[in-house]
Amino acid sequence: xxxxxxxxxxxxxxxxxxxxxxxxxxxxxxxxxxxxxxxxxxxxxxxxxxxxxxxxxxxxxxxxxxxxxxxxxxxxxxxxxxxxxxxxxxxxxxxxxxxxxxxxxxxxxxxxxxxxxxxxxxxxxxxxxxxxxxxxxxxxxxxxxxxxxxxxxxxxxxxxxxxxxxxxxxxxxxxxxxxxxxxxxxxxxxxxxxxxxxxxxxxxxxxxxxxxxxxxxxxxxxxxxxxxxxxxxxxxxxxxxxxxxxxxxxxxxxxxxxxxxxxxxxxxxxxxxxxxxxxxxxxxxxxxxxxxxxxxxxxxxxxxxxxxxxxxxxxxxxxxxxxxxxxxxxxxxxxxxx
Length: 338
Prior knowledge:
By secondary structure, the protein is α/β, with parallel strands linked by helices. The chain is built from ten helices and nine strands. Helix content is about 35%, strand content about 20%.
């Protein structure tokens, strides 16, 4: 076979001429190298981010789980249950809605509390819609007014969401609506009950009406951007909160140290951190009964989440004063910029 002489069409061009050519978007064989419209940016496709904000235990996480159709954010009656910004993706024909569940905004008592507030407030101007969420059963208070003032300053669309309506009467619901409307000029108001799925689908439809045209931010099958390790840590912490209630909740942090998924089983090791030796004893319980109960409940939830058999091993360590240690707060993943 005879040698074929290689031909370089750009051989005689200088670097400056090549740069100019690339800037014009020229390509080979007359192909335009400008970005082609992606399939997920079909004309009319709408997408955006929605932040659920409010006081602790207002019902934000439960409502997000109901909208997503599966548990992705942990819940408990304890304040500061949500410590991370959790995202859940809801896809509808022509729409992609990304929920951002934020920590409850409260008066901070330590460095962790301050960081959680910064995390929640930072979302107000980074989303397309802000949903100010109120618990229908609790009177509108000074804390709610303070949060409402922050919501008022947001440039996003504003929707008032009354949650837990199944536990309140009409007079309570109307009182919440009237009080909130005195603080903020909301574009829409909706009353919901996540437990009864009352107005959940209507809530999603309402939010979609405010979304701008845009790309599909997450692939079709991706429901959350949270890692497996983070979900493990959160589900274990939830069980600690549920089983210990008022005894140690705010002092608890959890880190997933090891995660291995095989075809048949998921193997996990997680460490529970507390601030005092007495708290460690509470979690261990009499003859280890409490830690076994926490582990069993967490394992069952994780098996449902991962659709696999789970082997979960838990350890407990004391880390005094971690809630006022910026480095430890970051280590646990609770920093505002995480």
